[in-house]
Amino acid sequence: MLRLNEVQLPLDHPDDALHAAILGRLGIAAEEMLGYTIFRRSYDARKKSAVILTYSVDVELKDEGAVLKRLAGDRTVAPTPDTNYRFVAQAPGRLKSRPVVIGTGPCGLFAGLILAQMGFNPIILERGKAVRERTKDTWGLWRKRELQPESNVQFGEGGAGTFSDGKLWTQIKDPKHYGRKVLTEFVKADAPDEIMYVSKPHIGTFRLVKMVEQMRATIEALGGEFRFQQKVEDIAIKSDNGQGQVQAVVLASGETIVTDHVVLAIGHSARDTFQMLYDRGVYIEAKPFSLGFRIEHPQSLIDKCRFGPSAGHPILGAADYKLVHHCESAQARGRAVYSFCMCPGGTVVAATSEPGRVVTNGMSQYSRNERNANSGIVVGITPADYPGHPLAGIGFQRQWESRAFELGGGTYDAPGQLVGDFLAGRPSTALGSVIPSYKPGVHLSDLSTALPDYAIAAIREALPVFDKQIRGFAMADAVLTGVETRTSSPVRIKRHDDSLQSLNTTGLFPAGEGAGYAGGIMSAAIDGIRVAEAVALSMLGKN
Ligand code: FAD
């Protein structure tokens, strides 16, 4: 098989044009090609009147060697790389103890899956409920203002990404092609096939719920065990000269599970668990994260700006954007403002896990056909903004989440303001053409005290700059809601680069977003695979 890259065709090309283009590029007759599959399809919409599709294809030929030899100088043609996943280990017949995975987000699910596939029979513990029950609880906040602190957007089967846009791309380096393994397993769990080849795959909430259930069934069939509503409240660690060794995890029920291998895939919102780990002496340090607001525009505005006359084309779908501005004004100098977790054709969701606090985030369905585009507009902050203690970032998040609850009227409504009013420095009193999607509701207010002054100044500086890239971005009627604080973990639970075990606690494998080693579904899942491999090797005494 050989891979042919950069096959370019117009957006509306006929079905057979790709076949013809491959033959033309390889300089072969039709009978020499046995077949082809699309490895990647992306678009280039820089010239809006002539959007181009770019394909990478894997081609099967009668005489591949001859074609590769003839096109030896062509950098767009090469043998197809082997991206098949290979297990690093296989469990022996009898295990001394079973590995425990804490958390069923993408990281914990993939750690659990890979361990189960290698025969290590993991026990997978989740503080929240199974995904169907969790969905009801999550809607309880959105519809009835009733928050379940252990079952919500952040906690429960599937983790934080379950009620999301399900964007699946990542910019991390992936030399071992673990991303392919993740996509392959997602497709086996009933994700749409196209995620294997579109350049920016997404899944959407409804399908994610089903996929999470399917993955659970697969892991159970392989000997893994899931236990829901089982919060890990303590970890027993034996200490010797400053170096700990995990001995057991202790559940909220009081039950102790003896194990010497624990994957800590707890996500960025397990604040009580971070505190417990700190109290037990596990090495943790503060890390940078971002805070800001969600912004909503009509999706049609973004589509038109991105795709011009091709807006609405089914291959292009709802348009997304990615914006960054580096601030120069005295109050915000050196701060970066950027769009975060952009959800085309989606809704803003209530994403708090703690009572008396308001947090925004975004989600969508696979169709992405809601009226508004939404995105976080967030400002980078560092531990210098919340100095003094490794867990100080959590207190900082809580401070602004409580402030948002207060500004929203104390009912879980999000405080909101029109962009025109925000830029002019006056409170909003009435909505314009953009109807915000956040449920249970939006309480119009003045957001100028909803974040630190430097963050307000930074966002005020950035919005007009973004308007130059997407005309209408700073439209007066666009709506800001807030606050966006759960952008990534406020801590890093540091681990060794090779063994992936905690710096000072052997047998503890900090993983995924909560530990500061991932940001997003894909990178968290990939980290889960890496950590599962490290656990397996350690259990076999090879690491
Ligand atoms: P999590 O998914 O947070 O999972 C951690 C799990 O651990 C949770 O289920 C939690 O209940 C459990 N847990 C925590 N503490 C304990 C304990 N003590 N005992 C037992 N269980 C515990 N990313 C994208 O790439 N694309 C998107 O479109 C996207 N949209 C998002 C939309 C929303 C609304 C949210 C909230 C996030 C979104 N994200 C998105 C981010 C993405 O969800 C996270 O990056 C990802 O889920 C992190 O995976 P994780 O497995 O590391 O942690």
From TrEMBL:
<dbReference type="Pfam" id="PF21688">
    <property type="entry name" value="FAD-depend_C"/>
</dbReference>
<dbReference type="InterPro" id="IPR049516">
    <property type="entry name" value="FAD-depend_C"/>
</dbReference>
<protein>
    <submittedName>
        <fullName>NAD(P)/FAD-dependent oxidoreductase</fullName>
    </submittedName>
</protein>
<dbReference type="InterPro" id="IPR028348">
    <property type="entry name" value="FAD-binding_protein"/>
</dbReference>
<feature type="domain" description="FAD-dependent protein C-terminal">
    <location>
        <begin position="288"/>
        <end position="487"/>
    </location>
</feature>
<dbReference type="InterPro" id="IPR036188">
    <property type="entry name" value="FAD/NAD-bd_sf"/>
</dbReference>
